[in-house]
Amino acid sequence: xxxxxxxxxxxxxxxxxxxxxxxxxxxxxxxxxxxxxxxxxxxxxxxxxxxxxxxxxxxxxxxxxxxxxxxxxxxxxxxxxxxxxxxxxxxxxxxxxxxxxxxxxxxxxxxxxxxxxxxxxxxxxxxxxxxxxxxxxxxxxxxxxxxxxxxxxxxxxxxxxxxxxxxxxxxxxxxxxxxxxxxxxxxxxxxxxxxxxxxxxxxxxxxxxxxxxxxxxxxxxxxxxxxxxxxxxxxxxxxxxxxxxxxxxxxxxxxxxxxxxxxxxxxxxxxxxxxxxxxxxxxxxxxxxxxxxxxxxxxxxxxxxxxxxxxxxxxxxxxxxxxxxxxxxxxxxxxxxxxxxxxxxxxxxxxxxxxxxxxxxxxxxxxxxxxxxxxxxxxxxxxxxxxxxxxxxxxxxxxxxxxxxxxxxxxxxxxx
Length: 416
Known about the structure:
Hypothetical protein af1432, 8 strands, alpha+beta
């Protein structure tokens, strides 16, 4: 059976993901221990339930639906809360604009960067000279925006279409890398290098045959070997292009290296990957697993944070994983959350002073009927109708509640 809802907040159970299929007796016993009532999908619809494709379960569960022990899940949540609230979570830069002001300021930059990225991918596909000067200019504007207020760019990065994945993934990774670099205190010039490298990190994929790049099933070992060639192909393309800094080539070459040496192309390990390569690896992976693809549905940002934290010290450098969690927050922008009032909302902006009190767009009332208007609301110092301070009760997978987060973010129509 496919369990789609529990009778209590997910924080009170060991189940990390909202919606899962029962395959083992161990899982059934755990449900009996935690819950008096659960909600399931009827057998004839379970196969179509969100998150059941083979590649989703590979990403979303440690090993074929085995539920972690209750204590492990609770400790994991506590660890994320401690990291999120640590004094070191404070960014090196102070916000200079509000979210609404910055969205207005950066809107044209985002639209231009989206068009530029599509052009660059076509140039790479047909062997033409890449518009690196245009990439540098666009990234320069995005750096200025990220330094003023990074939340606006992250809002734009929630606009995702599967048919534009490769080009827009590169743009989103550039945005994430800039916002992460800001959190780390990198200077503007360092951010410009990082942003250009992240923007161009996947140009080699334009040399991958489309039947492999867009395949809707699991890749064979031979197809996977061809897919991995996008790294050297990207280096080859960029080495033929004028004015590409060596640091940009380093990012392209190393964004699939992993901290334990299990990555590719060179099997680099630990600090030999370099700071820029490790940042690119983290942001590339994060966007990939949180985006819908032709072969699977993306997981929530919150779920991705949990998995990346579990992989610290193996796939990713531990300190950088913790800094990334602090950068994005445990309720990242675009998260669908249920409040302790029973209302459903979408996180639209972080609160960098009270990190568990983000600004949200209220979408549904406690009875789950839609709000006619969806203003941006701060949870800080706000009380529920019965007098309690507002809190985030749990994070919901968007597919489980039928909410498209990007639809509710305060973005202009031209961006979509």
